[in-house]
## 1
Amino acid sequence: MSGLEADLDAIAAAGGYDDTDAVVEEAVRELLRRRPELRLSLAVEKYRTGAVSLNRGAELAGVSTESFVRELADRGIDREAGFLSESVREDRLGTFLE
């Protein structure tokens, strides 16, 4: 067991956490609360990889949708308009109706 793992186990036991995952989750939440620039970067990365929508990314970043759109543009990240080609739309509709 590494020193970090031992520390996490000790914190979990002493702090009344269910497990070490709960310790890590709280630590990350606190880190993001204290470092808004990191929270913004995380939201941008989640948006870039498709893990969150534009609105959810803005919410995670703690900024308005308009500010988030500007941040994406400043970082050179293209925003998807969300429109499907006719063939993809028809294919998905066909799957949905089956």
Note: The chain has six helices and no strands.
## 2
Amino acid sequence: MRRLFSTVLLCLVSACATPEKPDPETVSPEVLYNRAADLLIEKHEYTKAIDAFDEIDRYYPYSRWALKAQIMQAFADYVKKEYDDAEIVLDRFIQLYPGNKYAPYAYYLKAMCSYAQLSDPMRDQKKTQDALLALREVANRFPKTDYAADAEKKLNLTYDYLAAKELNVGRFYQKNNEHAAALNRFNTVVRDYPVTRSVQEALFRLTETYLILGLDEEAQKSAAVLGYNYPESRWYKKAYALMKKYAPETIKG
């Protein structure tokens, strides 16, 4: 991801800069832009850089520097962790300039704003859902690009978070003897997130819950899937032990 950001920044940032603050009404947008870039890249004065890039957009809204300034302003917001502000700028850019050469980066940076806010699976996963949708959009709109490749990698972590959330809720229902609701959550993990780290435990919990409900055949099916795909898993060993104890007649072989 750092390489992607660096590549785009090299395209966006000019080599020159001006040491003194210019008057935006008398100085060219290029000079204003280079000064703002210097504040961002060299001095790491993000708040001043954000204001400086915004100044370009206000005084020279129809210049090519204004387009670049919008992207850089959003990046400065991102670095400063002002993700909502960054998304406002990026949404405006995407809406007004969908065919611009920096549009792929705008979509990618917007996805990164949500991705940076992934929360603990025990908490609300709205931002994870937002990241999932945004990353998918990057991958679908700009296939065979570095942005799409990185988005695909990051999608795996969003799946892990969402699966873990479903598993946690399922455990809660199971603990409170709400077994139908628990089964629904565990099945969601297995069906929607089959390659995540949570799927092994979800299959075990299905086995466990089906046994509690007296559905031995269903329990056996879940344990069999677990054993077939993860024969060395500790969750399979636990599931097998449960089946052997509570439904030995269903164990084949």
Note: Residues 1-82 form one domain.
